[in-house]
Write a structure and sequence with these properties.
Length: 265
């Protein structure tokens, strides 16, 4: 679905945790569920507006996600942080170099880009490879808003356990994944939202992720018109969990696509 002028669409490419759902070797009822919404690839979204396509994070499932979405262009990648489940699909942007006729811009913090350079040393090395490598145009984020093809993107600082990561606000939507806390100074960046994506790993506490109860507290505090929980583990069966959520709060699922107004309320 292509967003109309002044609007953008968000397609959930993956709504699961670092190990995905089903989880290897697990025979729990969610991992064996026949509900397609309980099948969760690693967390990522595709943002489309004004003919552009921007992905947040390149997960180890990126190739599968791009094929499933019928993605035939990629204008940029925003990185929240450099954990394996958010960067290891980066090599699979090579076909998009061909489709787009040049390098793909990537955006991330200094720390994130430093890890990407280390993990994908062959991409940045002076050594001439006999095979193709991703061609990247690297942009370091300093926390300030920036314009991306006519859309203002605002990095939202978050805590991920002891680590620092970014969420992103674009227009009237914000995508926050992998967070244990939204710092007080970031809350003003999340006002007047049409759509808010939040980490809601499970009900039990976790040192680096938010529980469903805490995510609901953030929804009550920030008051978006709609909220979607993501980075969901196999503790949460989709249908059963949604029964206990307010009507304007839903679980994200792979393939969910929503349209968002271009500006905040």
């Amino acid at each position: 679905m292509e967003a109309a002028a002044g609007r953008l669409s968000i397609l959930v490419l993956g709504s699961g945790t670092s190990v995905g759902v089903p989880t290897i070797g697990c025979q729990c009822r969610v991992c064996r569920s026949a509900d397609p919404r309980d099948r969760r690839l690693r967390p990522s979204v595709l943002i489309r507006y004004n003919g552009r396509a921007v992905v947040v994070d390149t997960t180890p499932d990126f190739r599968q996600q791009a094929l499933r979405a019928g993605l035939n262009r990629l204008d940029a990648v925003l990185f929240t942080h450099a954990h394996a489940d958010h960067i290891l699909g980066l090599d699979d942007i090579r076909p998009f170099n061909h489709l787009m006729g040049g390098p793909i811009p990537i955006y991330g913090s200094r720390e994130t880009l430093g890890t990407i350079r280390r993990v994908f040393d062959y991409v940045f090395s002076d050594y001439h490879s006999e095979s193709s490598v991703p061609r990247l145009e690297v942009h370091e984020l300093d926390g300030r808003p920036f314009e991306l093809f006519g859309l203002q993107v605002t990095p939202v600082p978050l805590k991920h356990g002891r680590g620092n990561v970014y969420g992103f606000r674009f227009g009237a939507a914000a995508y926050l994944t992998d967070h244990s806390e939204i710092p007080e100074e970031s809350l003003p960046l999340l006002q007047n939202l049409d759509v808010l994506f939040l980490d809601a790993l499970r009900h039990r506490p976790h040192p680096t992720h938010t529980t469903v109860a805490r995510a609901l507290q953030y929804v009550e505090q920030l008051r978006p018109r709609r909220a979607f929980f993501t980075h969901i583990c196999h503790d949460l069966p989709h249908e059963e969990t949604e029964r206990d959520l307010p009507p304007h709060v839903r679980l994200a699922y792979d393939g969910l696509e929503i349209t968002v107004e271009g500006e905040g309320r």
